[in-house]
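Predict the 3D structure for this chain.
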Amino acid sequence: MISMDDFESLVANLPIGVAVLQNDKIVYANTYLLMMTGYSYSDVENKSVLNFLHPDDKEIFIKRLEKRKKGEPLRNEVIYRILQKNGSIILTKVETKDFKIQKEDLVLLLVKNIGSSMLIYQPLEITSSLIDSLAFNNSFGIWIDDLNDNII
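Done. Predicted structure below.
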């Protein structure tokens, strides 16, 4: 039988970001999520998720929050750009699940860094924003190939 300490250690060290929200505030973040974003637990504890989302994605989160409060159905997966502590942007797939503990409404977030692997399937605005960020916010040279291996 697994002990509660073992279970907590397992969740803390899963190879996917895990967060729990209560009233839009982060009340739990696992080690992997903190490593992915560069924040410490004290940086995120009791802070709104909005503090960590790309400005263009905040409206999406707010609309989902309003629908959740009204009890309207939501897709369980959403793509968000998250701002890392160092100012970089990461593209993530976030899966959500509502649940209750001791009559408290909570939201479980499973956060996966999908990086460039999903750029081809994203709206042009997201892809353009990420490419601009990559091109103008680093000290390295880059080139981008299209699907036919042509440099663009």
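The longest helix spans residues 58-70.
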